[in-house]
Design brief:
By secondary structure, the protein is of the alpha/beta class. Helices cover 27% and strands 20% of the residues. The protein starts with 25 loop residues before the first strand and ends with a helix.
């Protein structure tokens, strides 16, 4: 993660971006309450992010440079791990700005200083492509308000708009500890607890907008030589808009959500890409006969909704998990079509 090329600012109001032909305005909305996540009791085993100290221990020696390990320079609790997210989104922000000519603001539902920013016209009025990263732990009870759903419906009536929803994984939903242990052994990430359930907010949004999808599990993708993620199983004949043009794979992450389509609506919800699963590690999903999970979906305009609606996990936009030209092509497609 490179150092910023310009001086950084914080705790200032967003300056609205004027519309420019051919330059779409991209915004990111993170559905968490930063204080709720950072303030979780580190003695609790489940449903929290790792502390930075835990990250350093597991990833040793990757984060032993003083930039990360010096407590006078970088927070060593859960807040430190949250800040890694912000740093890892910078390449995506820079890429999108280079393509569109507009800076990419990152909003938080509740930020470090406790300011509450609902997803309303203040966020949406100068946004053409909105990413909603569903990184709120369910225990923090982030619920979408009726006014937010109405604001999103108005946003989706715009022909030039695009909404990308990214509910994160749902590990350990079962009450059976043996099933939870199987899930944990499958993904193999010691930083993820036996239960880590995300995205109450985005689930509310999907329910309110009539998106028949549910985020389930945290599945380990299959890999090829050099620990490269296996190519996507892309269904390109369902992709006339070219969302996956030049895209063969995303980035490798140990636990990715399966986007389960809960209604028989092939015309309304198009599965554009599935990801092969690491079959060497048992999981309830694979024991049920599945070898791939649903990774990327598109809901074309329909009825009053003139906008495109997509589903893709937030890890695809994070440099923490690597990236190459295939991933940048995907970013380009999403912010320019």
């Amino acid at each position: 993660m490179s150092e910023a090329r310009t001086a950084r600012t914080y705790n200032q109001r967003h300056i609205p971006r004027a519309y420019t032909p051919g330059g779409r305005r991209v915004s990111v909305y993170v559905s968490w309450s930063y204080p709720a996540e950072a303030g979780r009791n580190a003695a609790e085993l489940d449903n929290r992010f790792s502390t930075m100290t835990e990250v350093r221990r597991v990833a040793w020696p990757a984060y032993e440079d003083p930039q990360w390990s010096d407590p006078y320079r970088f927070q060593q609790g859960i807040a430190g791990s949250l800040e890694l997210f912000f740093r890892a989104w910078v390449p995506f922000q820079e890429c999108a700005e280079e393509i569109t000519g507009h800076p990419v603001p990152v909003y938080q539902r509740i930020d470090q200083a406790g300011f509450f920013t609902p997803l309303d016209e203040r966020v949406l009025d100068d946004t053409d492509v909105l990413f909603v990263f569903g990184l709120d732990h369910a225990v923090t009870e982030q619920e979408a308000r009726p006014g937010e759903i109405e604001a999103l419906r108005a946003f989706l009536r715009r022909e030039d708009a695009c909404l990308v929803l990214g509910p994160h994984h749902d590990v350990g939903a079962s009450d059976d500890p043996k099933v939870r242990e199987m899930e944990y052994r499958h993904h193999g990430d010691p930083l993820v607890p036996r239960q880590q359930r995300f995205a109450t907010y985005v689930r509310d949004v999907m329910r309110g907008l009539g998106v028949p999808v549910m985020n389930r599990y945290g599945l380990r993708p299959a890999t090829r030589e050099g620990n490269r993620i296996a190519p996507l199983s892309a269904i390109r004949d369902l992709d006339p808009k070219g969302w996956l043009d030049g895209v063969t794979h995303f980035n490798f992450h140990l636990h990715l959500p399966h986007y389960d389509v809960t209604a028989d609506a092939p015309d309304a919800v198009r599965v554009l890409a599935r990801q092969p699963i690491d079959m060497s590690r048992p999981h309830p999903f694979t024991e049920a006969g599945n070898t791939e999970f649903t990774m990327f979906l598109w809901m074309p305009p329909d009825g009053d909704r003139a906008a495109d609606l997509l589903l893709a996990d937030s890890t695809i936009f994070s440099s923490l998990f690597g990236g190459d030209s295939s991933l940048r092509n995907f970013w380009r497609n999403l912010v320019s079509r």
